[in-house]
Amino acid sequence: MLRAMQVTQQAGLQLLAWLHLAGEVDGQPAWPFALRLSGEVMLIDRSVARALLAALGYTAAALLLALLALLWRRARVPLCALATALLLLTPWPDAGLVTAPAHPTSFHVSPAAFSAASIVRGERIYQRQCIACHGADGKGNTPQALALPVAPPNLSSGLLWRRQDGDIYWSLRHGKGGMPAFADKLDVADSWALIDYMKANAAGVGIADTGTWPRPVALPDMPLACLHSGAAHTGQWRGQRVRLVVGRDGPGQGEDPRLQSVLLGAPAGEAVGAIDCASTNADSLRAIAIITGTAPDKLAGTELLADRDGWLRARSSGGAWSQADMLCRSPLASGAAAADSTAAPSAPDAGGLGSLIAAMDADPVRFIKGGFVH
Ligand code: HEC
């Protein structure tokens, strides 16, 4: 239901734009209303969702009666009366529970997607414009921040995952509370790059603090140079699992039929294992350093695994894979995995990549942003 609500709003906005009824802001159709539908309360309180469904049911029934009235002349008066009564008596849930304040850019999405180049570009701008208040780790414990009447929020908490990207974008462009507006200092691409960087950095700070990715982070899109396959960037592999191997393509590594492999920080095909594709671009390595909270020179030997939906899920620092390498899992699945490991010894294929892939596939990422499950 939440997904349907979100898709309906997006489709409605496209339709308005197509009919020239919605203006444009920064190259994308602008949301023309002060509110948007939001699932935030419904995710916590099912009864609000049920009330909304019931109200929609009443409305559908009223429409059906009105249609019948059109077709069935003799019963027109009572049918119309019934439809009107239904419409008037529909018990809509309180508007505050199903809507949230909206900005013209609430439904904007990043045109650069989440790319390594954009993350690195964002890092440079962040260090110039934002670090004084928000700090390198985004936690906002800087002297300048503590002097503000309202302290900045912790950007490495779940904030960037809860809010819609378009709403964060609006805050950056037009300011919020104690934060100045940056619309005349930063262009559109700079602003999106900052959002990409803040997400990547929050993931790295999460690893440094807790040893896991507390919230899902995507595999950044990276340019590829492949010897045999025709792939030009990792985004083309959506629907397939991807493994990144940093700096070392040792014997016994090479290609694996279950995954697409990419070598970072070394030319493709040169090393022993002969992984076909490499991303030699400096941004790729830098972006991975940010996301893993690890200095680039300490990354050699690291491998990362992304699932079929493009979420980074596991990291190994060399050696065989084990279940402990899974850094991004749902709270439910981590409970189950803990129970499993105490109950039964693993299957033969277990150690290693096989069971990790099985665990990853069995526990797909479903995360919530702006009150909607993605
Ligand atoms: C003068 C200090 C200052 C600077 C510079 C600054 N911020 Fe902020 N930022 C704040 C404060 C204060 C808030 C809290 C605003 C509020 O919610 O009232 C904030 C909030 C935010 C938020 C949360 C917005 C939301 O919608 O809740 C984001 C994201 C953010 N800042 C990113 C940035 C980025 C990126 C930059 C650099 C381009 C930056 N900030 C520069 C002080 C600053």
Automatic annotation (TrEMBL):
PROSITE patterns assigned to the protein according to its UniProt record, in alphabetical order: CYTC
Keywords (A to Z) from UniProt: Heme, Iron, Membrane, Metal-binding, Transmembrane, Transmembrane helix
Pfam families linked: Cytochrome_CBB3
Record carries keyword Nucleus: no
Residue intervals of the Cytochrome c domain: 117-202
Transmembrane segments: 51-72
Protein name per the record: Cytochrome c
Phylogenetic classification of the source organism: Bacteria, Pseudomonadati, Pseudomonadota, Betaproteobacteria, Burkholderiales
